[in-house]
């Protein structure tokens, strides 16, 4: 079993073994849920890219190819340099 200590500010460092298992990295979001048995669960909110497919689609919108997306990203990045 992996354990951690709560600081005086109520913070806890998630042990590396758990972060690796849940694919958590700096900036990752998590949720805390208390289930029907009173057990607290840590739920990672990192969503696989595949599950995001289509969420921005609007009726009549033309789909972009990967090459078009990369070109647009490159053009946008060059505006920052």
Automatic annotation (TrEMBL):
<dbReference type="Pfam" id="PF04014">
    <property type="entry name" value="MazE_antitoxin"/>
</dbReference>
<feature type="domain" description="SpoVT-AbrB">
    <location>
        <begin position="1"/>
        <end position="47"/>
    </location>
</feature>
<dbReference type="InterPro" id="IPR037914">
    <property type="entry name" value="SpoVT-AbrB_sf"/>
</dbReference>
<dbReference type="InterPro" id="IPR007159">
    <property type="entry name" value="SpoVT-AbrB_dom"/>
</dbReference>
<keyword id="KW-0238">DNA-binding</keyword>
<protein>
    <submittedName>
        <fullName>AbrB/MazE/SpoVT family DNA-binding domain-containing protein</fullName>
    </submittedName>
</protein>
<dbReference type="GO" id="GO:0003677">
    <property type="term" value="F:DNA binding"/>
</dbReference>
